[in-house]
C-alpha cells in the first residue's frame, strides 16, 4: 500500500516467550486506589471510574525517558498494565478475564502542572498525560504463564528510595470491572492496553533520577530520566 506520507510503525511490546504484542490504544483509569484519590483531593467512595487515553506511540520501551518539554512538574504514577487479547463490547465482569492476554508494569508519566491547569479550566487532560514517551512499559507476560493478577506488592523506588507502595488488591475497580466498564462505552480490541491506576505517593522526578517499578510476578521496570 502506498500512502501520501510515511505510515506510522506499529508499536510492539516484547512478550515473555512469544511474539510481540501490537499496541492499538492505551486506556488509563484515574484515581483507582483510595489513598491516591485522597491525596489528589477527592473522595474515593463516591466516584464511578473515569478514563483517559494516551496514543499508542506514547509507549516507551527504552531504558531512558527524555524529560518532556513545557513542564516543571513531571510526576511518576506506577501502574499494573493489562493487555487485551480478545475484543468485545458489553463484556460482563465474570467473563472479563477471558479477554486478557497478559500483564506488564508501566508508568503513567504526568505533566502535573499542565494537568492541574486543565482541571481548573475544565479542559482536556491530553497534553498533561498523552505526551511523547509518557508511558514507559515493561515486556508483557501472558496470563497463561503468570496467571491473572488480583493481588501482590506494587512498589516504585526512585534512586533506591520507596516513593509508592501498595498492593494490587487495593484497586477500587478491579481488572474485570475496568474491562466491563470500558467495554460499555467503547468496543475493546486486541492490542488495547489498560493502565489500571496508581497508588498513593505520586511525586516529581528530575533529570538523572532512576525509577524502578515492581509488581509481584511481573518484569522489573527500570527507567532513567535524561
Ligand atoms: Mn495514572
Please name the defining characteristics of this protein.
226 residues, 17% helix, binds manganese (II) ion, Fumarylacetoacetate hydrolase, domain 2, 6 helices, alpha+beta, 6-stranded mixed beta sheet, 5-stranded mixed beta sheet
Layout of helices and strands, plus pairs?
Elements: E1 12-15, E2 18-22, E3 26-29, H1 34-39, E4 51-54, E5 59-60, E6 64-65, E7 74-75, E8 78-84, H2 93-96, E9 100-107, E10 110-111, H3 112-121, H4 126-129, E11 135-136, E12 141-142, H5 143-146, E13 153-158, E14 161-167, H6 175-185, E15 193-195, E16 210-215, E17 221-225
Parallel strand pairs: 3-15, 5-11, 6-17
Antiparallel strand pairs: 1-2, 3-4, 7-10, 8-9, 8-15, 9-12, 13-14, 13-16, 16-17
The chain binds manganese (II) ion.
Describe the structure.
The protein has helices spanning 34-39, 93-96, 112-121, 126-129, 143-146, 175-185, and strands at residues 12-15, 18-22, 26-29, 51-54, 59-60, 64-65, 74-75, 78-84, 100-107, 110-111, 135-136, 141-142, 153-158, 161-167, 193-195, 210-215, 221-225. The protein has 226 residues and is an alpha+beta fold. It has one domain (20-225): Fumarylacetoacetase-like, C-terminal domain (Fumarylacetoacetate hydrolase, domain 2, Alpha-Beta Complex), CATH 3.90.850. It has a 6-stranded mixed sheet with strand order 4-3-15-8-9-12. It has a 5-stranded mixed sheet with strand order 6-17-16-13-14, with no helix packed on it. Strand 1 (12-15) and strand 2 (18-22) form a beta hairpin. The longest helix has 11 residues, at 175-185. The mean pLDDT is 97. The site of manganese (II) ion has 7 residues, from loops. Manganese (II) ion is lined by residues 28, 77, 79, 108, 195, 197-198.
Amino acid at each position: 500500500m502506498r500512502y501520501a506520507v510515511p505510515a506510522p510503525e506499529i508499536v510492539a511490546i516484547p512478550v515473555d516467550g512469544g511474539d510481540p504484542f501490537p499496541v492499538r490504544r492505551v486506556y488509563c483509569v484515574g484515581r483507582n486506589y483510595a489513598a491516591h484519590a485522597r491525596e489528589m483531593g477527592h473522595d474515593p467512595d463516591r466516584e464511578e471510574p473515569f478514563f483517559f487515553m494516551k496514543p499508542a506511540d506514547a509507549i516507551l520501551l527504552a531504558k531512558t525517558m527524555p524529560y518532556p518539554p513545557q513542564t516543571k512538574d513531571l510526576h511518576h504514577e506506577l501502574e499494573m498494565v493489562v493487555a487485551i487479547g480478545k475484543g468485545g463490547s458489553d463484556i460482563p465482569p465474570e467473563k472479563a478475564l477471558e479477554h486478557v492476554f497478559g500483564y506488564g508494569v508501566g508508568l503513567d508519566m504526568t505533566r502535573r502542572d499542565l494537568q492541574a491547569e486543565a482541571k481548573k479550566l475544565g479542559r482536556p487532560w491530553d497534553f498533561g498525560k498523552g505526551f511523547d514517551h509518557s508511558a514507559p512499559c515493561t515486556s508483557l507476560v501472558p496470563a497463561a504463564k503468570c496467571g491473572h493478577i488480583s493481588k501482590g506488592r506494587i512498589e516504585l523506588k526512585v534512586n533506591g528510595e520507596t516513593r509508592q507502595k501498595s498492593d494490587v488488591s487495593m484497586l477500587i475497580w478491579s481488572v474485570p470491572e475496568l474491562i466491563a466498564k470500558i467495554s460499555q462505552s467503547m468496543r475493546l480490541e486486541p492490542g488495547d492496553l489498560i493502565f489500571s491506576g496508581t497508588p498513593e505517593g505520586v511525586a516529581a522526578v528530575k533529570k538523572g533520577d532512576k525509577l524502578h517499578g515492581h509488581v509481584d510476578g511481573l518484569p522489573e521496570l527500570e527507567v532513567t530520566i535524561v
